[in-house]
Design goal:
alpha/beta; 9 strands; about 40% helix; binds N-carbamoyl-L-aspartate
């Protein structure tokens, strides 16, 4: 696999996923022992044209934990020359002179790929509109493995805004590469999973069902993946209101979830998970956010020290 750029889940082969996950396990030890130094002298730029807490800060933490440094533009849509009308390509042509790799989050579908087309340094997609969030999918897979001891032969329920939620879209794609995956997609009509992802699932032969209620199916799930309704992507406020508040995972629904199952959420949460659920040992979303640091340490190390290649065998 060429790990020059990280743009979408589709670029990974199953063997690459194993490599990245096992490197992330090593990175967890490096982070815990504070022994990281493999990116000393390197600079990572984070160019964020949309809000972020976890993705930007965990990339920056990952870089710092490996001895590297960061150049951050956290409100690039307001404070970079994008305000003056500069294109993402022109911005990247400048920042590539200042940094060894660039993480981009942008509201436009395909923005990271457009940046990669002109960049001489690796571009990492930190979320491109309602398209993909590949590093989130990797940390989600790492979390499933850490929590359940395996990633294969699981029934995963994706709940909420599956149309605009890039985290759920990327997770569905990455799980389609894992043997024995079954997906249950729970969303209101109008924001169900888009046909492009369903076509991939059909081609690969991943069994899935489309549901509108969580209660009747929750007892079948190994993973419940809750998501936020993506307010900022709806064409009108009224259309957002129509789709919001449909699902809340509360303590009574948790009684129906098997004891060995796990609850995940890419965060931020609005009202999809009752706060009382946080005390439940099956609530993994804060551990999931922490895993973002280990996955991003692994990716940065592989990209910047691996000669752009993950070596097989
Ligand atoms: C998600 C995102 O930005 O796509 N957050 C994240 O990166 N953890 C999910 C969301 O905003 O709802």
């Amino acid at each position: 696999m060429n790990l020059q750029h990280v743009l979408e889940v589709d670029q990974f082969a199953p063997a690459d996923l194993d490599r990245i996950l096992s490197h992330a396990r090593r990175m967890k030890t490096v982070a815990e022992n504070r022994t990281g130094s493999s990116l000393r002298g390197r600079i990572l730029s984070t160019l964020f044209f949309e809000p972020s807490t976890r993705t930007r800060l965990s990339f920056e933490s990952a870089m710092l934990r490996l001895g590297g440094q960061i150049l951050s533009s956290e409100m690039a849509s307001e404070t970079s020359s994008a305000v003056k009308g500069e294109t993402i390509q022109d911005t990247v042509r400048i920042v590539e002179s200042y940094a060894d790799a660039i993480v981009i989050r942008h509201p436009d579908y395909g923005a990271a790929a457009e940046a990669a087309a002109v960049s001489s340094v690796p571009i990492i997609n930190g979320g491109d509109g309602p398209h993909e969030h590949p590093t989130q999918a990797l940390l989600d897979l790492f979390t499933i493995q850490s929590e359940l001891g395996r990633v294969d032969n699981l029934t995963v329920g994706l709940v909420g805004d599956l149309r605009y939620g890039r985290a759920a879209r990327s997770l569905a794609r990455i799980l389609s590469m894992v043997p024995g995956t079954r997906l249950v997609m729970i969303a209101p009509d109008g924001i169900q999973m888009e046909q492009d992802i369903l076509t991939v699932l059909d081609e690969v032969g991943v069994p899935y069902s489309l549901e509108t209620e969580l209660g009747p199916v929750i007892a079948d799930l190994d993973v419940v993946y809750m998501t936020r309704v993506q307010k900022e992507r709806f064409p009108t406020f009224a259309s957002y209101i129509e789709m919001s508040g449909k699902y809340q995972l509360d303590t009574s629904l948790m009684k129906l979830l098997p004891p060995s199952s796990v609850v995940m959420h890419p965060l931020p949460r609005v009202d999809e998970i009752e706060h009382a659920v946080d005390q439940d040992p099956r609530a993994a979303y804060f551990r999931q956010a922490r895993n973002g640091v280990y996955i991003r340490m692994a990716l940065l190390d592989l990209i910047l020290n691996g000669n752009g290649q993950i070596h097989h065998g």
